[in-house]
Amino acid sequence: MARELGLNPKKFRELANHRQEPWKRPLPDFIAALYVKRFGKPIPDVVKTIEEIAAETLAKKRAKKAKKTIASQQLNEQGSVTQSQAPGPTPK
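User: That's the sequence. What structure does it adopt?
Assistant: Structure tokens below.
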């Protein structure tokens, strides 16, 4: 839930001092309350691990790169075809 909220794990120490400041909620309760406030539901629909998120991102990058490479190759092929069809000096 904290990842979806965009919370920085390095800042959790600042948020998790409910023993020193008893009016603050414990960190898990605080994160759950923020999640409900922002998304209007108690838990995410799909819970993904960091590894799953990283794998999806890598797959998207690879697919985008492959698509770009294919488009570049097609553009190069079209360019070479139009150059060969372009009128040039006629041989004598």
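The longest helix spans residues 50-85.
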